[in-house]
Fold this protein.
Amino acid sequence: MRGNEKMKETLRHKEAFEYYYILGDKRSYPQVASKFTVSRTSIKKWSKAFNWQERVEQRDIEIGKELEAKTNETVLNTKADFRAEIKIQLSIFKVMLNKLIEKFKENKGLEIKDLDNLKIVVDSYIKLVSLYLTLIGEASKIEEIELKDAKEKLLSKINSIIAREKKTKGLKGNKKSK
């Protein structure tokens, strides 16, 4: 190659670059020179003529972007899977709570024997709702406060139903004893 002549990249040059690239952190001109049985000076010329350093950087950027896209997709899919599972659990809890309230109203007894156990069920429901909102990017302090208020209102309503039922049962018991 003479002064102003531009070298044309051949298949051998491309193979040398690919080998250089796959060496990763251990890449060096002497290793490429040895593999392709050429001088180190030739490899330096090829590297300069065909912009190996820039190509390495560009390929690393492209691979990084692909890896980031795959990671983002995996995270989104995982969140979607969790959201689907949480929706199923929420629907189960809703049905369970509604059945408990109906049984209690009809004075048919409760499967949950005391208020503490009922509070555990309600807390679990609230946590699932909160987790679901977080996964869809909607949870904030405001939603958490609203959920806490909703929980307190629900528990207050349950407590008033229990108190009313106890009072009613107490009145019925007094009438029978007379």
Q: What stands out?
A: The mean pLDDT is 80. Residues 52-105 form the longest helix (54 residues). The helical segments are 11-22, 29-35, 40-49, 52-105, 115-135, 141-177.
